[in-house]
Amino acid sequence: MNSRTFDGRVVKAVASKFFVDTADGVKVCFARKKLKADGIIFVGDYVCAEKDRDAYVIDKVYPRKNALVRPYVSNVDVCVIVVAPEPEPDFLLVDKIIVNCLEQGIKPVIAANKSDIATLSLSEYNNVCKVVSCSAETGAGIDSLVSELKGNTACFSGQSAVGKSSIINAVLENPVLQVGALAGKIKRGRHTTRKTEIISLGEDTYLVDTCGFSMLDTVDVPPEELRLYYDDFEAFRRQCRFNTCTHTDEPDCAVKSRVGKEIGEGRYNRYKLIYMELDERRKNKYD
Ligand SMILES: Nc1nc2c(ncn2[C@@H]2O[C@H](COP(=O)(O)OP(=O)(O)O)[C@@H](O)[C@H]2O)c(=O)[nH]1
Ligand SMILES: [Mg+2]
Ligand SMILES: [Zn+2]
Question: How confident is the model at residue 216 (pLDDT cuts 50, 70, 90)?
Answer without folding.
Answer: confident
